[in-house]
Amino acid sequence: MELINKIPDGPLDQKWTKYKNTARLVNPANKRNIDVIVVGTGLAGASAAASLAEMGYKVKALCFQDSPRRAHSIAAQGGINAAKNYMNDGDSTYRLFYDTIKGGDYRSREANVYRLAEVSANIIDQCVAQGVPFARDYGGLLDNRSFGGTQVSRTFYAKGQTGQQLLLGAYSAMSRQIGKGNITLLNRHEMLDVVVIDGKARGIIARNLVTGAIERHSAHAVALCTGGYGNVFFLSTNAMGSNVTAAWRAHKRGALMANPCFTQIHPTCIPVSGDHQSKLTLMSESLRNDGRIWVPKFKEDAEAIRAKKLKPTDLAEDRRDYYLERRYPAFGNLVPRDVASRAAKERCDAGFGVNATGEAVYLDFASSFERYGKQQATVKGLHNATHDEIIAMGKKVVEQKYGNLFQMYEQIVAENPYETPMMIYPAVHYTMGGLWVDYELMTTIKGCYACGEANFSDHGANRLGASALMQGLADGYFVLPYTIGNYLADEISTGKISTDAPEFVAAEDNVRKQIESLFNNNGTVPVDHFHRKLGKIIWDYCGMARSEEGLKFAISEIQKIREDFFKNARIPGVQNGMNPELEKAMRVADFIDLGELMCKDALERNESCGGHFREEYQTEEGEALRVDDVYNYVAAWEFTGNPSAPILNKEPLVYDNIKVQSRSYK
Amino acid sequence: MTTLKYNHVVINNNMENGMNLTLKVWRQANAEAQGQMTEYKLGNVSPDMSFLEMMDVLNDGLIRKGEDPVTFDHDCREGICGMCSMFINGEAHGPNRGVTTCQLHMRSFKDGDTIYIEPWRSAGFPVIKDLMVDRSAFDRIQQAGGFVSVNTSGRTLDANAIPVPKADADKAFDAATCIGCGACVATCPNGSAMLFVGAKVSQFALLPQGHPERHDRVENMVKQMDAEGFGNCSNIGACEVKCPKSISIENIARMNREYMAANLKG
Ligand SMILES: Cc1cc2nc3c(=O)[nH]c(=O)nc-3n(C[C@H](O)[C@H](O)[C@H](O)COP(=O)(O)OP(=O)(O)OC[C@H]3O[C@@H](n4cnc5c(N)ncnc54)[C@H](O)[C@@H]3O)c2cc1C
Ligand code: SF4
Ligand code: FES
Question: Given A125, A408, A525, which is nearest B156 (Cβ)?
């Protein structure tokens, strides 16, 4: 298949302006006769639905939760980037663009990333106007913090609940349009197929999760804003319901899946505590502004700590190894996520891990308590403050910044992080891979778009912190509303699309058959069993480190899991009513197929880049070794009917504005 | 009417040295069916499990026995989506303060305990199945006025054009941390939704961006709240205590002031 990315010509900083000036428009009267389905109500979906409805399109919005406000975006903690340069620390559109390309290890498209940086400042204006209560300084102006992989402070935040506040902003914009009748909300609905007629997306098949009814919905365009697929690993920081089903079903209908092996393992998450674990909890990257990461310098200390004979606070400074500061003096604790995660794994694999499982490192705030405490003492003129008073004041400052995260930690681990360092370990967090889209965010199915984490477009092989929220809102508020018109301009005389077309009938039939076969297999084993097994294989062989041998083994194991699943999974309950096990089963079926594709993709990419670390390709110091002359492309996979035999298409990546270098944070 | 065929089910999970619990769980096949409490014995529960992970273990056992697992709402499992909603031993989100059900851990219980697990009960929240209820009334209240009528074009003022005093911004933020779980309603003897609505009204009332529409907003939201069948506030204050985000009842007072001001204006 030929991949046309539709990147406009001209200088980088004028492409988007030029595009907007020449894209076709749909006049207001015609918009009223055009239906758009937006699947998903996270940052991408809610902002897209609100914007499209406001422009005059008739929108249907779907989410599987009971309310749009509960989309997984709600859980984002640390912040959102924007090139506002309010801190006057040398930030600019170009610098945000550059950091993102470099952070992504030179595996993303220049034009898309530049556009993202360009619209980023607007996002903040928009959100403030909506009443999003960002953190402010004492002068009443917006405050910023730093995130990994950058040397400026460009991250806007609302304590540890930035995603919540941004999503509630987009949800309120959406609610306004629902109230006006411009959006029809289909909550507790799951999309199970895209209906393609004459090569164009013409609607979807969805299941009403309350009644079990299989429904047909037609539209002139469909936007998939269905989030990432991190839950393929079973354990991840994603919400329990996050899934690949919508994207995967589109993939099966002709949308290519790009770079599926590019997944992000986040360095600071609460470690696994036992077999019952159902999900993992992130401790925001923002904590690395003030927390220092370390393990014991000597193995005997690590062993004593694991045996609970020694406490971390007992260890003197010279017996600690602040390994990120040691290895990467320029960026220290704020190296990008892939680098920080691998470094933690390296130390733990070498026997320096600090909890019972040996898979944890410390994130320590002691020196920040002291630093902030001293600052406070100076500000308040308390020159005789005792050490304890200083620490207490410092803790107050830290509480102001991260109070809810500290509280969350204590609830889960039952240890007070103000008194003893946090224990953290990397966990699956985000997926850079996703549906292939062109510059207009259209997939390889005409009229079918993908926005937010569901697409592959902006983060290359590694996403920088606080850039997913930025991308989701950029796609939904500022990109799709322009690009979709360019396609819909041809649809003004199409008229209402009938759901009686044979393609609708066939797609519905297909979904029904799948459901029936899941019910009728006489299996005895709960769905979660298969999901855990799949997740473990992918974590072990397609996680933080990958190798040819491991990936080949994983592929054969996944094929066995698929067979076992269809034979032995038990779906209790009813088809025509609320049935969470059935929902899970359909998602797991798609995760199995996706998992196999991820391993294939990782196997095919004989280099290391960003989150994709092939053990065979590393420098002497253990850093990722890219092979630019061969692998500087987007791997876009095509479904053939057989999940084990996909076809690889390549979109070459062209760098006209940035010199491709090897990434260094030293 | 459906009656459930199993009344006592014993599930043993293979953890060693865990707790043994008796669970009395509300089972209701659908909105129309009559529900009932059903008893389950669950063995070897680890104190490190979250409450929902304990429910997962129960469900795993039920599925293996060919029974229908217990349906409950959940998603983020970290206290932010507002989806989980269980009434545990007579308290919304269980015995602890400032946490949701998904943040409750089994270390808050002890071996041999009997735990009663029920759905939110309120006229405004009909049961869908077992522990799952319909909270779409909250969405409709939001649709009635819980927004600033600004277009999403991005052609607005620069974000720093209007400074907001930090104290106001912080208060607005505190109000905005409401997760829409409905524990306030479930806890209130009157089934009032005033804490939820008050929090949203306050967030916007405290920010300059919310001022132009403040009167219409409060009137429209209160009107919808009443239409949904939520009860009135009689200052009991139980909502604030059981709110997992510790939303202050000051927000109800602020909403009442906003409402009076709107009425005076006419
Ligand atoms: C714990 C955590 C913290 C994070 N913190 C940050 C941060 O600080 N900064 C940052 O930039 N990024 C952060 N991220 C990443 C960021 O939150 C996500 O990438 C982003 O929110 C994804 O938004 P989205 O709109 O693409 O998808 P989501 O928010 O995942 O929304 C998906 C939507 O699709 C719907 N859906 C899915 N499948 C179907 C289907 N089949 N049928 C119907 N509906 C469906 C869901 O109901 C939901 O509404 C964080 C992620 C996690 C896990
Ligand atoms: S006010 Fe508190 S209890 Fe009520 S919905 Fe909001 S978070 Fe839940
Ligand atoms: S599951 Fe999200 S708040 Fe409990």
Answer: A125
DSSP string, A57-91: -EEEEE-SSSSGGGSGGGG--S-EE----TT-SS-
- DSSP letters, A622-646, are S-B---HHHH-EEEEEE--SSTTS-
Burial (0-12, 13-18, 19+ Cβ within 10 Å), B234:
exposed
Predicted pLDDT at B7: 41
Tell me if A385 is assigned to some domain: yes
pLDDT band of B2, cuts 50, 70, 90: very low
| A356 lies within 8 A of chain B by CB | no
- φ and ψ of B192, to 5 deg: -85, 145
Tell me, yes or no, whether A546 lies in a domain: yes
Q: What is the ipTM of this complex?
A: 0.95
Domain boundary pick from A400, A426, A452: A426
Q: What is the mean pLDDT of chain B?
A: 93
Q: Which neighbouring-strand residues pair with A35?
A: A58
% of chain A with per-residue pLDDT over 90: 93
| A395 shares a domain with A306 | yes
Return the pLDDT at B16: 59
Query: Which of B54, B78, B86 for a ligand 3 pocket mutation test, highest count of atoms within 8 Å of Cβ?
Result: B78
Is A434 a residue whose pLDDT tops 80?
A: yes
Atom number of ligand 3 nearest to Cα B179: 3
CATH assignment of the domain containing A370: 3.90.700.10
Ligand 1 atom with the smallest distance to the CA of A246 is 41
C-alpha closest to that of B100 among B83, B112, B116: B83
Same domain, A406 and A510: no
What does the alpha-carbon distance between residue B248 and residue B237 come to, in Å, rounded to a whole number?
9
pLDDT in tens, A87-113: 999 999 999 999 999 999 999 999 999
**Residue ranges of the domains in chain B?**
9-129, 135-149+161-265
Q: Do A140 and B71 touch (CB under 8 A)?
A: no
In a domain, A601, yes or no: yes
For chains A and B, count residue pairs whose Cβ atoms are closer than 8 Å.
224
Ligand 2 centroid vs A462 CA: distance in angstroms?
36
A122 interface with B at CB cutoff 8 Å: yes
Please indicate, yes or no, if residue A180 is contained in any of the structural domains.
no
CB-based contact A32:A159 (threshold 8 Å): no
Q: Give the model's confidence band at B17: pLDDT under 50 very low, under 70 low, under 90 confident, else very high.
A: low
If pLDDT is split at 50, 70 and 90, which confidence band does B4 have? Answer: very low
> Given this structure, which CATH class describes domain B135-149+161-265?
mainly alpha
The β-bridge partners of A185 are: A61
The rounded mean pLDDT for chain A is 96
Inform me whether the pLDDT recorded for A178 exceeds 80. yes
Are B177 and A161 in contact (CB < 8 Å)?
yes
pLDDT at position A401 over 70: yes
Task: Please name the fold of domain B9-129.
Answer: Ubiquitin-like (UB roll) (3.10.20)
Q: Of B68, B74, B157, which is closest to A572 when you measure between CB atoms?
A: B68
Judged by CB atoms closer than 8 Å, whether chains meet at A126 and B156 is answered as: yes
Give the integer Cα–Cα distance in Å for B124 and B203: 23
Q: Does A420 touch chain B (CB under 8 A)?
A: no
Please tell me which residue of chain A has the smallest CA distance to B76: A239
- A157 C-alpha to center of ligand 2: Å? 22
Tell me the CATH number at A549. 1.20.58.100
A115 close contact with B: CB closer than 8 A? no
pLDDT surpassing 90 at residue A1:
no
Interface contact B60-A72, CB threshold 8 A? no
* Domain carrying residue A507: 503-633
CB B34, CB B59: distance < 8 Å: no
